[in-house]
Amino acid sequence: MKEKLQKIWQEAKSKWQQFPLKEYILKIIKICRKIYGYICNKINIGGTYIGQMGISANIVSWVGFIIGVFAINFIAMEMYGWALLAILLNRICDGLDGAVARSTKITDFGIFLDATLDYIFYGGVIFAFALANPSSNAIAAACMLFGFASAGCAMLAYSVIAYKEHSTHQINLDYSPFYLGGIAQGSETLVAFVLLCIFPQWFSVLGILFGVFSLIKCFSLIAAAYYNFVIVPFRKGNK
Predict the structure, then answer these.
(1) With helix as H, strand as E and coil as C, how does 151-192 read?
(2) CATH assignment of 2-237?
(3) Which of 41, 72, 173, 224 could covalently link to 124 via disulfide, CB atoms 3.0 to 4.6 Å apart?
(4) C-beta separation of 85 from 137 below 8 A
(5) Model pTM?
(6) Is residue 107 a contact partner of residue 52, using CB atoms and an 8 Å limit?
(7) Which residues, including other chains, have CB under 8 Å from residue 180's CB and lie 6 or more apart?
(8) Which residues, 6 or more positions from 171, have their beta carbon under 8 angstroms from its beta carbon?
(9) Tens digit of pLDDT for each residue in 165-216?
(10) How far apart are CA 158 and CA 215, in angstroms?
């Protein structure tokens, strides 16, 4: 049985390596990385300039949040084009506030404010889709919020313990509830919201899918916490 499974795996691997679509996918990923890097570079430059003007990172966070509230309102009114624009501006501000903080001074309150406003915005977007079409979107929105809250609580709990123990084995926690690690870190959240605005009629399917992704992230954090807070200290104690 084991030999058969290995043979099937080798055949599938060989076919995938010969499949021409693989090259196109890799090219697309490479292009996306370049675009993401270019955007991040411009945001860092813009954040440095804003910081030199004397504008604090907290002000940028609040501006982005207010824009995000407009996105929530637009979604509830089924004005998805305007909502998408507001979401993109909100995400730009989310990048800018970090760039401003790095160019001036990073504060504990600034980190707290940035994460808190982001989570309110994320939850508000999901809630807005439920308001836009309660009969068809309510269950998917509930599923999405369930996964969202689970991932958020797991990240918060992990951060508290890691801070308490001054852990040197912290994983790269991102504020995004959909972040599982990958091509461009927290950009998965942006992709999720863009898809929901472009295809709002698919929310019932996409919402459940993104909710499942969030739950996967939650359990991956539980596994990471067990490794970093149980296995690693145990190994150190046996040395």
Answers:
(1) HHHHHHHHHHHHHHHCCCCCCCCCCCCCCCCCCCCCHHHHHH
(2) 1.20.120.1760
(3) 72
(4) no
(5) 0.75
(6) no
(7) 188, 213, 216, 217, 220
(8) 158, 221, 224, 228
(9) 655 544 444 444 444 433 334 577 888 899 999 999 999 999 999 999 888 8
(10) 15
